[in-house]
Design goal:
Blueprint: E1 2-7, E2 9-10, E3 22-26, E4 32-35, H1 41-47, E5 55-57, H2 63-78, E6 85-88, H3 92-101, E7 109-112, E8 118-120, E9 123-129, E10 137-142, E11 147-150, H4 159-165, E12 170-174, H5 189-195, E13 201-204, E14 206-207, H6 211-217, E15 222-223, E16 228-231
Parallel strand pairs: 2-14, 4-5, 5-6, 6-7, 11-12, 12-13, 13-15
Antiparallel strand pairs: 1-3, 1-16, 3-4, 8-9, 9-10, 10-11
Length: about 230
């Protein structure tokens, strides 16, 4: 499976060095999906010609994980592209309808569930509940050989995520602060280092203003950046 880290930022985005959360995944059979589509990431998928995905999987409804979707839906209308499927925890359809009711000509096939899941050709995607400040899920993606865990936003330790992490080949984990950000439903770099071995973790969701501190603390860990490509 091929991964493109489209948006790896969180919090403030000084200089737009990191746009907000989004990951493009393409399987060996050519199936492409997106995991989240936050602020600014919609521009990147267009600039980098990553428009062949058929589905978006949303972890939760905070703005930095979904706001790029609505602008992207406009582009799909302009380019006369087919409707995409959006898998999301409950509430996304309400957001979409609010845009439509205020005059925006956008549409999508929305599939809401407490625990979204799908089978798309050779890729199986399922979710477990995360431990965030609002209801959120983490996604597991497998092609039958490799297993990827994408946490979205969560506070560790989160038992459902730790269970899935045991046999994951790759864990893409948020790292929203240096010390303690549990009150906001996030995980610190120190907590990641205490829970996970460096060899199978990529840290994302990094606020630009703490990037240098994170690099200094998390030596040995891979820090995602916008445009990073990885084969799993």
């Amino acid at each position: 499976m091929k991964l493109v880290f489209v948006g790896t930022g969180a919090g403030a985005t000084f200089g737009s060095k990191r746009v907000k959360s989004s990951i493009y995944l393409k399987s060996d059979d050519g199936t492409s999906i997106l995991l989240d589509l936050g602020t600014g990431a919609n521009f990147k998928i267009e600039d980098w010609n990553l428009l062949d995905f058929s589905s978006i999987f949303v972890t939760h409804l905070h703005i930095d994980h979904v706001s790029g979707i609505f602008d992207h839906l406009v582009q799909r209308k302009v380019l006369r592209m087919p409707e995409i499927e959006i898998y999301s925890p409950p509430g996304f359809n309400q957001l979409l309808e609010s845009y439509k009711q205020t005059g925006n000509n956008i549409s999508a096939i929305v599939k809401e569930s407490k625990l979204p899941k799908a089978k798309i050709k050779d890729i199986e995607i399922y979710s477990v509940e995360a431990c965030h400040s609002i209801y959120a899920v983490s996604y597991v993606i497998t092609d039958g050989e490799k297993k990827i865990l994408y946490t979205g936003d969560t506070s560790e330790p989160c038992e459902s995520i730790l269970y899935e992490a045991k046999d994951a080949n790759l864990i893409i984990h948020e790292g929203s602060c240096v010390n303690d950000c549990k009150q906001y439903g996030h995980t610190s770099i120190g907590e990641i280092m205490n829970l996970f071995e460096p060899k199978k973790v990529i840290i994302t969701h990094i606020p630009s203003q703490i990037e240098n501190q994170v690099k200094e603390i998390a030596k040995g860990y891979i820090l995602a950046y916008d445009g990073m490509i990885l084969d799993v």
